[in-house]
TrEMBL record:
It comes from the Bacteria. Keywords: Membrane, Signal, Transmembrane, Transmembrane helix. The keyword Transferase does not apply. Belongs to the leucine-binding protein family. Pfam families: Peripla_BP_6. Residues 50-359 form the Leucine-binding protein domain. It comes from Microbacterium foliorum. This is Amino acid ABC transporter substrate-binding protein.
Length: 421
C-alpha cells in the first residue's frame, strides 16, 4: 500500500493539473536497486548493444483505440534511437494485448518471451497486465507500461522489473474529484468497470470528492463484457445527482445514451483516460460541455507531426487521430535505451537497475530532453536525467513516476474534445 505525504500538491489551473510527488511512503514493495555512483565504462570497454522489445498493446478489444498512438510512440522512439547511432540498436516486435475477454495476451506474451525480448511494453489495461506480469517476472523480463494506472502495482512483488510512465490513479482520481467540485457540483453518481482500473479510480474519486464536501449519492459497478446497464442507470438516476462520472472504456458509448435517454443532461458527464476519446459520431447523443481527464502534458506540434508520419509508415494507412499515451510509450523506449547504455548491458536486470538513475529519480543527473543529448552525457561518463514527452518521470523505488501532469479536456458540439487552456 502507498500513501502520499503532505508534500504532494495537486492543482487544477487553466485545464491542466500538475503534480510533483516529492515523497511517497511505501509499504511492502520491492524496488529496483540503483547504483548512480558506478564508474562508467571507457569507450574501449563499451559494447555495441541490441535491445529487443516486444509490445503487448491493444490492437483489439475494449482499449483498441489506444493501440495506434502507443504503437506509434514505440515505433518513433525506436526509429529515432537507431538513427542517432549511439551504440544501441532497438528491435521491436509488435503484439496484441487484447483485453480480459478476448485474451490475446495469452498468445502474445509467450511468443515474445520465446523470442528472447529483454522488455515488454504494455499492457495498456491494468487488468491485462495483472494477468501476465508474474509470467514476465518469472522469465526475468522487464514489463514497462505506458498506461497502467492501478495503485496495486506499487506494491507488486516484481523483483524490480515493473515500471510505468503513467501516474497512479491516486493522482487522476484526486484531480477529477477536485475538478467536479470546482465546477460547482455537490452530488455525483459513479458508474465504473469492476476491475483493477475501475476500482482504483472509483475509490480515489470518491475519497477526493467527499473530501471537498460533496456527496457520492450512488456508485454502481458493471463487469467487462456487459452490454445492458439499465439497472445501474436506474439506481443512479433515482438519486438525482448533479453530475455522473463514467469510469470505463468503449462501452461508454452505450452507457451515456442510457443516461441521456433517461433524462440526464449530456453536458454533465465526467470521463477518465480510458474513455476520454474523440467520440465523434460513435457517441449517438450530444455530450457537449462534458469533461474528461488524461495523464500527460501538452504534446508539442512537431512531436505530433512525427507521430503521424510514423503511423502512416507502420500502421494500417489510417491517420493517427488520438495521441493518448503516445508520449508515455515513446519515453518508455527511450528510458530503456538510456538505462541499457548506462549499464553497458542489455541484460534486463542490469537495465532495470539503471532506470531510476536515467529518469532523474536518484536526483544526481544532468537534465536532458532527447535521447541523443542524454546518450552523449552517458557516453562522456556522466549521469543523464531524462525529461521526456510524458514529463519529468523521476522514478521512485517502486518504478512509479513521481512527477506527472493530468490534462483536462472538454467536449464540443461535434463530440470531439480539446484541451482546456
Amino acid at each position: 500500500m502507498s500513501v502520499f505525504t503532505s508534500s504532494r500538491a495537486v492543482k487544477v489551473l487553466g485545464g491542466i493539473a500538475v503534480a510533483s510527488i516529492s515523497a511517497i511512503v511505501l509499504a511492502g514493495c520491492t524496488g529496483a536497486a540503483t547504483d548512480s555512483e558506478s564508474e562508467a565504462p571507457s569507450s574501449e570497454e563499451r559494447q555495441e548493444l541490441t535491445l529487443n522489445i516486444g509490445t503487448v498493446l491493444p490492437q483489439t478489444g475494449a482499449l483498441a483505440f489506444l493501440g495506434p498512438p502507443e504503437e506509434a510512440g514505440v515505433g518513433l522512439a525506436a526509429a529515432e534511437i537507431n538513427e542517432a547511432a549511439k551504440g544501441i540498436t532497438i528491435d521491436v516486435e509488435y503484439g496484441d494485448s487484447g483485453d480480459p475477454d478476448n485474451k490475446a495476451y495469452e498468445t502474445t506474451v509467450p511468443r515474445l518471451l520465446g523470442n528472447d525480448v529483454q522488455a515488454l511494453i504494455g499492457a495498456a489495461s491494468s487488468g491485462v497486465t495483472k494477468l501476465f506480469l508474474d509470467q514476465a517476472v518469472g522469465a526475468g523480463v522487464i514489463t514497462f507500461s505506458p498506461a497502467n494506472t492501478s495503485p496495486d502495482f506499487t506494491d507488486w512483488d516484481d523483483n524490480g522489473l515493473y515500471w510505468r510512465t503513467a501516474p497512479s490513479d491516486l493522482l487522476q482520481g484526486e484531480v477529477l474529484g477536485n475538478l467536479i467540485a470546482e465546477d460547482g457540483h455537490q452530488s455525483i453518481g459513479i458508474i465504473y468497470l469492476n476491475d483493477a482500473y475501475g476500482n482504483g479510480l472509483e475509490s480515489a474519486l470518491t475519497e477526493t470528492f467527499e473530501g471537498t464536501g460533496g456527496e457520492v449519492v450512488a456508485s454502481e459497478s458493471y463487469n467487462a463484457g456487459d452490454t445492458n446497464f439499465s439497472a445501474q442507470v436506474s439506481t443512479i438516476m433515482a438519486q438525482n445527482p448533479d453530475a455522473i462520472a463514467v469510469i470505463g472504456f468503449e462501452e461508454t458509448s452505450t452507457i451515456v445514451p442510457s443516461f441521456v435517454n433517461s433524462g440526464f443532461d449530456g453536458a454533465n458527464f465526467y470521463f477518465v483516460d480510458g474513455n476520454t476519446s474523440q467520440w465523434g459520431d460513435t457517441m449517438p447523443v450530444s455530450i457537449e460541455g462534458s469533461k474528461g481527464t488524461q495523464p500527460g502534458p501538452v504534446l508539442a506540434d512537431d512531436f505530433q507531426d512525427r507521430l503521424k508520419a510514423q503511423w502512416l509508415e507502420q500502421g494500417d494507412g489510417a491517420e493517427l487521430a488520438d495521441f493518448n499515451y503516445a508520449g508515455e510509450s515513446y519515453d518508455a523506449v527511450v528510458l530503456l535505451a538510456l538505462a541499457s547504455l548506462a549499464a553497458n548491458s542489455n541484460e534486463p536486470a542490469d537495465i532495470a537497475a539503471s532506470l531510476q538513475e536515467v529518469s532523474g529519480g536518484s536526483g544526481d543527473g544532468e537534465k536532458c530532453e532527447s535521447f541523443t543529448d542524454c546518450a552523449d552525457i552517458i557516453l562522456d561518463g556522466g549521469v543523464a536525467d531524462y525529461d521526456g514527452y510524458s514529463g519529468g518521470v523521476a522514478f521512485d523505488d517502486a518504478g512509479d513516476p513521481t512527477e506527472a501532469t493530468i490534462g483536462v479536456f472538454q467536449y464540443g458540439a461535434d463530440n470531439m474534445h480539446s484541451r482546456l487552456d
